[in-house]
Amino acid sequence: MGMRNLIKIYIFCVLNSFLSCHPTIEVQLNIHDPCDQSNLSTVDFVNLEMRSVELDSNYSTYWERSNGIGEFLDLPPADDVVLSISGLTSNSASEPGDALIAGTVGYYDFSRILAAEESTKNVVLGRVNEFYTTTLGETPTKCTQLNHDRRGHSATLLSDGRVFLAGGEQVVIETQNESYFFDNTEFFDPKTGRFTTGPGMESINRAYHSATLLQDGNLLIAGGVGVINSVATSLNSALLYDPESGTYAAVPMVQQRSHHTATLLEDGSVILIGGRYEGQVLTSTEIFDPITQTFSAGPFLNTARAGHSAVRIGTMGVAVIGGHSVNATLNSIEFVAPLQTQTITGPNLVTARHGAIAVYVDDFDAILVAGGYESIHTEFSTGRGLNSIEIIKVENSNPATSTMVCSALTLSAARGGAAFAKLESGEILLAGGTNGSGTIESSAELIKLTNLSNCTLSKTSLTSLSTARSQALATPLIGGDILFTGGFQGTDDALTTVKTANVFVVSRETDN
User: Fold this and answer.
1) Separation CA 402–CA 395 (nearest Å)
2) Which among 254, 298, 294 has a CA at the least distance from the CA of 277?
3) In terms of Cα–Cα distance, which of 113, 123, 118, 115 is closest to 13?
4) Which residues are within 8 A (CB) of 95 and not within 5 positions of it... i.e. 6 or more apart?
5) Which of 68, 112, 289, 349 lies most in the core, judged by the most C-beta atoms within 10 Å?
6) Quick check: helix, strand or coil at residue 460?
């Protein structure tokens, strides 16, 4: 891409101290373009915000690009500093205008005087409302990628700001139905742009499992498909991963299951729902208690299902939506609560589907269901996606009276197996997936329910992912940007897993 642009900012942080002298930290911020974008030459102003979550403090300022120096006075000695940076254009009055590029990274330890090698921070800022390929901060001309191409993995934001990728399946030669299941893990660190090797999962390979970040910061990895004695089978084991020590504790489960859902409830427990086992589809649920670190049986579903969607409603309820049985997709919805012995039947979907997205829309107490697959397909097929959207009005006090209120809305493209994330703005980001003819999409869009009574939806088409992919994962990062990892590309019986990773940069509002 020719000459790379660079903006350097020097920050002088004077730390509060009980000592008579106040130590000063000098931090040099090197702001870079991503490896596949060139934006910095059009930036006129830089907005920098520094905040500490623990101390509930927030500091921000602007610089003209030509100045290059800023100063923060009396910054508390925090060890969890988050930097949010935006590059802005000039408005008609030659003042800071709209944010063109942005990024958020953390956590940094500013509680002590930094050593020389720690005082330089490389930050990559991508174009707002677009995707960029993950980039090595210290060498920003170099794109980074996963250590292993994978699908059916998990990707979870940890409390320290890193993303933990676990397990999954690598498709080697899909035309011969060959694939490998991983017992390995890797970290993505937004501060560096690197993917690095994580601790192996106790020699148990697994894919199509669940991974749930618990309230204490530990990660529960449950079930999935593993290879035991050269045979792929659903697992009845879980691992409790402690990010601080990097160690696992094994936890036995009640039932072997994969392709299930896992939902964190308000009391800190996790409910696993449905899934597959030995060619069958399950009606069972089970509940993980973080205090005793044990699983116990939960209520049974009315309908056996896997590949369904699950959305928490209220504090302890879960809406279980669609999915498939052994031989057909499902249009039924039921509500599950751990303290109930029976589930509650909800309204039916107009279109049966599995692998759909489902998001709770807080402003309207409604669940938006979109896309998914119209029929069951083999693991070596791309499937056929749906473009329809349905919205259920949820009655939290009496879920049985919940109703289907909108069923004629559509996405800009059919998407089975789309990666999705709910943004802080209330918009829903959808990217990739398989369209109605079986072609894998690179397109992306933002949707937002704006009026429930007349079923009004806003839709915004976005630039594309760098690689068309289906069944990728979207993981929110600190600051709200979204990391996309894994998935597969190709055509029926000729699929390959994806190694590249993208970051979607969300819009920023700046006080200018």
Assistant:
1) 5
2) 254
3) 113
4) 512
5) 349
6) strand
What letter would DSSP give residue 41?
Answer: G
Structural domain spans, the chain: 6-128, 307-471
Summarised one tens digit per residue, pLDDT across range 338-360 is: 888 889 999 999 999 999 999 99
Q: What is the C-alpha to C-alpha distance for residues 286 and 114, in angstroms, rounded to an integer?
A: 48
Q: What is the pTM of this model?
A: 0.94
Does residue 360 have a cis bond before it (omega within 30 degrees)? no
Tokens of 64: 């003209």
Domain boundaries 307-471, corresponding CATH code = 2.120.10.80
> Is there a contact between 170 and 179 (Cβ–Cβ < 8 Å)?
yes
Sort 230 into a burial class: Cβ within 10 Å, 0-12 / 13-18 / 19+: exposed
- Give residue-wise pLDDT tens across range 53-110: 777 778 788 888 777 666 665 566 678 889 899 999 999 998 889 999 999 998 888 7
Length of the chain: 512
Residue 476's beta-bridge partner residues?
A: 482
Cα 366 to Cα 360: distance, rounded to the nearest angstrom: 6
Instruction: Please work out, in degrees rounded to the nearest 5, the angle formed at the alpha carbon of residue 156 by the alpha carbons of 415 and 54.
Output: 130
Which CATH topology does 6-128 take? Immunoglobulin-like (2.60.40)
Write the pLDDT tens digit of every residue in 255-280: 999 999 999 999 999 999 999 999 99
Residue 262, Cβ density class (10 Å: 0-12 exposed, 13-18 middle, ≥19 buried): buried
Partnered with residue 187 across adjacent β-strands are: 164, 196
End-to-end alpha carbon distance in the chain: 32
